[in-house]
Each structure stands twice: as C-alpha cells, then as structure tokens.
Amino acid sequence: MENKQRPVLYVHGFRGGDYTTEEMVKSGLKYTGKKEFLKVLINWRGQITYEGKWTDDECPIIQVVFKNKLISENQIAHWLIHLLIQLRKEHKFNEYDAVGHSLGAVSLVLVNLHEKRHQYMPKMNHLVTIAGPFNGVLGLNDLPNINRINPSGKPAFMSPTYFRIYLSRNNISPNLKVLNIYGNVEDHSNSDKYISVTSAKSIGYVLQPRVKEFYDMPVSGSKAEHSLMHDDSDILQKINLFIYAPYSA
Question: What is the pTM of this model?
Fold first, then answer.
C-alpha cells in the first residue's frame, strides 16, 4: 500500500550536531502542532540507530545526527542515501523534503544527483539550503571578494566540489523546489564570516535552469552569521512556510 507521507529531514554539517538543527526541529514541530519526531544517529561506521518516533501524520520530522563531527560532504551524502533507502523500506513513502545547513546543504544536493542511479531512493521534493559552501570556504579554498558571479550567474572560479556538481547537473531532479538561504554580515567580506555570498549563491547557476522552482533568500546584518542563521526566528518561519505550507493549502 502506497504511503502518502512526505518526511522532512534536517541535516547538519561539518562540526555540527543535534544542537545545529535543534531550533529548526522545534520550530517545525510548533508550526505543525506536533510533539514527537524521529532522531537518527549515524556513527563513524555508518551504523544507524533511532531515538524518538516516526509519526503517522503527513510530514514526519527526521533529525539526522552524525557522531563523527569531522565528516565530509561525500560521506554525509553516502550515509544519507543508505538512510533514505532504509527508511523507505520500513515506511513505504515515495517523496521527502530536506533542510540542510552548511556542508549538510551541499550533501543534500549530492544526494539528489544520485536519484537516477538508485531506483529505490525516494524522490526529493522540497530542499532548503542554508549557508551552503557550494563553491569554497573562506580560508580554505576561497578568499573574500575574489570570486565573482557574472551576469548569467556563472562563478568565475569553480571549486572541485562545485565542478563535480556542475558536471553532473543533468541528474538534478526537474521536479525539485529549492530555497537557497545565505548570509552577509556586512563587514566588507561579503560573507557570513565563513562562507562567501558568491560560494553560497553560485549553486543557482546549476540548479535554477533545471529545477521546478528556485528561490534565493539573502540575509544581512548580525543575524546572517553562519552559525546563527539556523536559529533565527524569521528564517525559521520562511523555512516552515516553504516546507509545510503546501500541505495546508
């Protein structure tokens, strides 16, 4: 029997944890009037354990937590694919939504690139990316105000990860709806202190021509700092409207 549920995954990034997505999960629960959610714990070997409950409503909330905080985007994507296949076998859903912060956002785009290769994977429907280092991290493979986006949206320089996504761009789901949130603390670096606006915004060049809907949401000022955006009440409200409002229409 087909399950009409569409679970919502919340995924943290590098050096993150349950505290990263805690306020987003709480806000989602409040918006939907729920009290329970499922926490997924993935250890450094990829073994999965569960805490909490898979609810029987339209949008079960799933908080994904990696025990290894120094995990790469490729490893996150690999384990998320394994998790999604396992959850689908258990609960029989066909679609899901996802919210990713920082490297979690990049990983979720990588997951979407694999949908055509893994026939049993559920299909990503709505995706929220927050502060995604799609094209470099300041101090590692990016510097303030060096990279530029031309009028067509194409970045002047492509990091290895971005270039790999770009080469695989035709595997992006055409039915995907994306909200891309990025910050500028307005300190002349044009960044959220860790991720440049160019790095976060450059994913639009890959996704916008190929997905069903794509929206950029720039955030500025003190609340635009990399580790504050996932807790900001205005941003949380926008996420909830994007993810959950279609079910109440």
Answer: 0.96
